[in-house]
Write a structure and sequence with these properties.
Layout: H1 4-15, H2 21-28, H3 32-41, H4 50-56, H5 60-69, H6 75-84, H7 91-101, E1 120-133, E2 136-147, E3 153-158, H8 163-177, E4 183-185, E5 193-197, E6 200-203, H9 209-221
Parallel strand pairs: 1-4
Antiparallel strand pairs: 1-2, 2-3, 5-6
């Protein structure tokens, strides 16, 4: 929103001084759409897009019909279909017109989850392409553990996603943070989850809670980590 005084100044510059909307926007350091809105509301100008769209309005029924059947169809394909039916306008204007009439997905609401310190950690593998080791080329991966509360990250590079590296990654992460999260989330990580059917999750036998706790106990035994201490 802008003040009444600024709106009056926009109208004065446009009506009395004959400044263009672009000049007014630059001199008053406003976005051009703000100036155009003030002028339209005062009846001083018509929407600037009207002349361009008046020629394209005849194609709106075709556009709406096709997008109703194929919502993901690109504007270039629609433009080509219109050209084959007699359209002779600009491709850029046509694509812009399509973007304004393309069906919009309803906005989704998200709830931001908040956790307590030391309550939760998220585990995953990260992939970093390939590196040369001698004459061989090997995949470079990283074991990642992120603390949900502080977003602190532990990352350890390696060349495989085997179970030994998976458990060792836990131990080193616990040592690094000096504590063990109460809950660890794995999503559909293949190293931990064998199968997911609805809410039922079958964990990998070697990635069982007992083995993860074993890694935690080894970290605690190293003297660098206090089991159960918030992180």
């Amino acid at each position: 929103m802008i003040s009444d005084a600024l709106a009056h100044e926009i109208l004065r510059l446009y009506g009395q001084e004959k400044w263009s909307p672009g000049t007014i926007a630059r001199q008053l350091r406003l976005h051009r759409s703000v100036v155009q809105r003030v002028l339209r509301q005062a009846g001083s100008i018509k929407p600037l897009v009207q002349p361009m769209h008046s020629k394209l309005a005849v194609w709106l029924p075709m556009i709406e019909e096709i997008l109703g059947k194929y919502p993901g169809l690109c504007a270039s394909s629609l433009f080509q279909m219109a050209v084959e039916r007699g359209h002779r306008g600009s491709a850029d204007h046509f694509r812009h017109y399509v973007s304004q009439h393309r069906p919009r997905k309803p906005a989704e609401a998200y709830i931001r989850l908040r956790t307590l310190p030391g309550e939760e950690g998220q585990v995953d593998w990260a992939h970093f392409g390939k590196v040369k080791v001698g004459r061989a080329e090997r995949r470079l991966v990283g074991f990642v553990l992120v603390l949900s509360y502080s977003r602190r990250i532990f990352l350890r590079f390696g060349f495989d996603q085997g179970m030994a590296g998976f458990l060792d990654g836990h131990r080193r992460a616990f040592e690094h943070f000096g504590g063990i999260p109460r809950v660890l989330l794995y999503d559909n990580l293949k190293s931990a989850v064998v199968e997911r059917i609805g809410n039922a999750i079958k964990m990998h036998g070697q990635a069982s809670r007992r083995r993860i706790l074993g890694a935690a106990n080894r970290a605690s035994g190293s003297g660098k980590c206090g089991s159960g201490r918030p992180t």
